[in-house]
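As noted in the main text, all predictions were made from sequence alone. Below is one such record, for 1,4-alpha-glucan-branching enzyme.
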Amino acid sequence: MAAPAPAPGSEAALAAALADVPELARLLEIDPYLKPFAQDFQRRYKRFNQTLDNIGENEGGIDKFSRGYESFGIHKCADGGIYCKEWAPGAEGVFLTGDFNDWNPFSYPFKKLEYGKWELYIPPKQDKSLIPHGSKLKVLIKSKSGEILYRISPWAKYVAREGDNVNYDWIHWDPEYTYKFKHSRPKKPRGVRIYESHVGISSHEGKVASYKHFTCNILPRIKDLGYNCIQLMAIMEHAYYASFGYQITSFFAASSRYGTPEELKELVDTAHSMGITVLLDVVHSHASKNSEDGLNMFDGTDSCYFHSGPRGNHDLWDSRLFAYSSWEVLRFLLSNIRWWLEEYGFDGFRFDGITSMLYHHHGMGQGFSGDYHEYFGLQVDEDALIYLMLANHLIHMLYPDSITIAEDVSGMPALCSPISQGGCGFDYRLAMAIPDKWIKLLKEFKDEDWNMGDIVHTLTNRRYLEKCIAYAESHDQALVGDKTLAFWLMDAEMYTNMSVLTPFTPVIDRGIQLHKMIRLITHALGGEGYLNFMGNEFGHPEWLDFPRKGNNESYHYARRQFHLTDDELLRYKFLNNFDRDMNKLEERFGWLSAPQAYVSEKHEANKVIAFERADLLFIFNFHPSKSYTDYRVGTKSLGKYPFCCQFKIVLDSDEAEYGGHQRLDHGTDFFSEAFQHNGLPHSLLVYIPSRVALILQNVDLPH
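Prediction:
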C-alpha cells in the first residue's frame, strides 16, 4: 500500500519537494515566502518532466517532436512527388484542391491515419511540377455532419490576399531562389536594449511599408541609436491589420502584406550583420476566430486546436484559446517556435499576453495585490504553464544564447527562474508597472507634487534575480485612445512650437527636459534591459491608429515620421540625440548588466534622486524651478587616493545638442572627500540645475 502524501505545507511536504526539484532550495533561499508553495513547484516540475518523458517515449524526443513542419502541411518529395499531412480529428474526409487540379474538390483524397491524422501522396508528373510555386491551394474538409469546408492548412508557410478579397489564399511557396543566410547570430547582449518595431508603419508615407524598406531605411537608424536588439511585432500572419498582429490567422506564415519570406530573412540577416539580435513577438496566448483563413473550426468542430465550449473563448479579446494539454496542439506550438528560430533566424521571443495563459480567469477583473495565494492553486492553468516551460526548454536547448521575454501583468513568482528551480525559464519579464506610473504622474499630479520615493519604489520593485525589461512607454501608450509621454507633456504645442527658430515656450521646455529625464532614469534604474517603441525616442508627435472603418480606412496615423529627426530646424532631433548617447553610454559602461543600483537619495522637498550603478553616479533634479549650487551627493567610490576621487560629467541632459540650456561647465572636475552622507563614506559637491539629469564618472576607475 502506498504511503500517504504529506500534508500540504508540512515539513515532510517541503522535504519531498526539495528532493524532487534539483535547485528548488536555491529558489526558496532567494524567497523564503515561497516555502508554503513548494508542492506547487514540485507538481509543476514533475509534470514538465513527465511530458518530456512522454514525448521521448512516443515521438523520439522533443528535438524530433518540434519538427512537425517537416511533415505536416505540403512538401515536395525527393522524387518530385507531393506529400501532405494534416491533423483533423473531427473530419469525415480530407481533400486537397487548388489551381493545380482546376479546383476539383474530391480528386485528391487524403488517407485516414491513427489519432486524427490524414496523409496524401501525389506521384510526380513527367513534364512539369505538379503543384508549381505560387499555386493557390485549399484543404477541403468534409465534416461529420456532411458540410463541405474550404480551409487553409494550419501549417501553411505563405498566405496572401488579392485585390478586394476579404479572406487570404494559401499559396504554395516553393521558389527557385531561396535566401541564404550570410551572417552568424550575434552573441547574447550583456545588457539588452530593445527597439520595439512594426514593419508596416515604419514609413512616413500613408501606406504599408515593406520588409525591404525596413531593412534599408530603419535598420541603420536603429544601429545608429545604439539599440542592440529588435523586437518585431505583427510578423505572424494576421488577416486584420488593425489587430496590431495580435489576432493570428496563420502561425507559420510571415505576413505577406510587407513582402516575401525571403525578404524577411534578408531583414534578419542584415540585422545580424550589424550585431543586432532579432526577437519575434510570438502570440501563443490565443488565436483569431476566423475559420476560412484561420485555425478556428478547421475540422468542422470547435475543439480541434482549442478548448471546446466557453473555455475555448476569450470574451474580452473575442478570440480562441488553445488546449495546451492536447498532444497535437503541443506539437503545433513547439514546432511553430522552432520554425521561426530555424527558418528565419530569429534569436528569441517576446511571449505576448501570457497572463491570459497562466490563469483560468485570464487576468480579467483581477487586481493582483501581490498576495502569493493569487499565483498558486486552482486558478492557475498548469497546462499552459507546462507548455511555457517546454517552450523555454526547447528554445534554450536549440540556441543557448536565445532570449525569451514574458509579458505578464500579474507578477507571478519564478516566471524568470530556471526550470531546475521549478520556475518557468524565461530570461526576462516586462516591468509593466513603470509606464503606468509615468502616465499616472503626468496625468494626475503637478510636477512639484511628484513623490521621489514612489518613483524609486516603482523602478526598483522587482524580484531578486528575475530580470526585468524596463520601459517608459511601449506600443500600448502610442495607440489611439492613449497618449505617448511626449503627448502628455507637450500635447498640441508639438504641432506649432517645435521649431528652433521660435523661442522655447514653457510647455515645450518642460516637455523636452522631462522626456529625457524620465527615459534616462527608467533606463538606468528600472531593470536589466530597456525597451523603446519605434519613434517614441524622439517624441513622435502623433498617436498610432491603423486603417479601420472608424477612421475611413485611413493610413494617416499608421506611420512613423522619422524624417522629423532629420530636419535641423525642428527640436525632435534633440530627443533623438539624447536617446542615442544614452544607449551608447550604456554600451560603454554596462549598467543594465550591473547589480541593482544603490539609491542614496530620494529627497522629497528638493526633488532630487541620486544613485550609483556600474561605477557611475546618476543625479536627477526633478524640481520644476530650483537649481542647487554645491549640492552634496554621497558616493561609495574609491579612487587613486585614500580620501579623494575625481569625477567628470559623461552625460548631461542640459547640453545644447539635447535641447538643454547649457548651464554646466563640462571642464569642471568634481572631487569627493571623506565626508559621510546618506550612509555613504564619501561625498562630493555638485551644481544641479532644475530639470536636469547628470551622469558622473569616477575617472580614477578603469573602464
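The CA atoms of residues 492 and 541 lie 9 Å apart. The radius of gyration is 28 Å. These features were considered when defining construct boundaries for the mutagenesis experiments described in Section 2.9.
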